[in-house]
Specification:
mainly alpha, 3 helices, 39% helix
Length: 57
């Protein structure tokens, strides 16, 4: 069973360490393109993929 990449910030490390990555790109795209709001505050706990999400964008 693969584990979540806690504290890993690059796709290269996720792949090399055989970790699990949940791709949220489609959800973020829908949030940006199908909403009336201009700004978003994405609050997430420490080590829950904020940096990796921003790299994806």
């Amino acid at each position: 069973m693969k584990h979540f990449p806690t504290g890993i910030h690059t796709f290269k490390d996720i792949i090399n360490e055989n970790k699990l990555y949940v791709d949220k790109t489609e959800y973020i795209h829908n949030l940006i393109t199908q909403s009336e709001y201009k700004y978003y505050f994405l609050s997430r706990p420490r080590r829950f993929g904020k940096s990796l999400l921003l790299i994806t964008l």
